Hints:
The protein is an alpha/beta fold. The chain has helices at 11-26, 50-62, 78-84, 90-98, 142-145, 154-166, 184-188, 201-209, 228-236, 253-259, 265-278, 297-310, 327-331, 338-352; strands at 2-7, 30-31, 40-45, 72-77, 104-105, 124-128, 130-131, 150-151, 171-175, 215-219, 243-245, 283-290, 314-319.
Amino acid sequence: xxxxxxxxxxxxxxxxxxxxxxxxxxxxxxxxxxxxxxxxxxxxxxxxxxxxxxxxxxxxxxxxxxxxxxxxxxxxxxxxxxxxxxxxxxxxxxxxxxxxxxxxxxxxxxxxxxxxxxxxxxxxxxxxxxxxxxxxxxxxxxxxxxxxxxxxxxxxxxxxxxxxxxxxxxxxxxxxxxxxxxxxxxxxxxxxxxxxxxxxxxxxxxxxxxxxxxxxxxxxxxxxxxxxxxxxxxxxxxxxxxxxxxxxxxxxxxxxxxxxxxxxxxxxxxxxxxxxxxxxxxxxxxxxxxxxxxxxxxxxxxxxxxxxxxxxxxxxxxxxxxxxxxxxxxxxxxxxxxxxxxxxxxxxxxxxx
Length: 353
């Protein structure tokens, strides 16, 4: 039996797919060289935007064109995570209607950390340090697809990093929906409140950096959790990447408040200045959403102004789309026309990228 894994979305999904590979091989299956050679196809999904969700439906339904007898089709990832956490059952019903050829909807948790990843990259290792998120930005579906934040044990992460460096990997990326809050759930659930210093991201990052990798990356980090201790660790360890991904989402204080982002534009700019002062040669990448409900021309101009002040190396730009169960979808009408969202997207794309 041969399998093929198709991955949509972020690096966290790529890391999940590496464990799906391991799970399938543990069942005695072999990877297929191409999708049309597979007896079983696993689609690891992303639904961070409506456009990403629609690509899933198109891809799955196009599989009908494959060989007869048709392969077994399994859908997993964030789309399934949203459905299994929906107590009404409406989302799962909708998935079955939109993708009638799917044989199984598999929760990604079944490909857990008991399975060592089968990595496709031989030099750069992706190492998840947590899953889920507690912050609930009003537009974000992640808490509803991946659940509450759960940190992996410190020793388990370090052991995985030690293993990949022994295998010749020279670069590692620590992954989490918000790496900066690593360990806070462990502290909150512990009777020994905050007694273990390793339950903090800056201590984990420092430990991994000292293992001997040529380069250590981390993604993603929220501005309100970016501590002075973390800045100090980055500054003191030259193998930690000088390219820091620091999502801003908007340059308007009013929009940031509606997004439930816990900082102002002034606080964000002050943080960028502080990091730049202490970490020589640092560059910033970011995420920005255009056309959030109610975003005016003036508020968008504030985003342009912030982008010009920071001088981002790269921005991952998105046109706002309401996501199921999120606060913004329930509270705010999606009232910025698509044509205007596209115009704003193109302005930032030209300015930054």
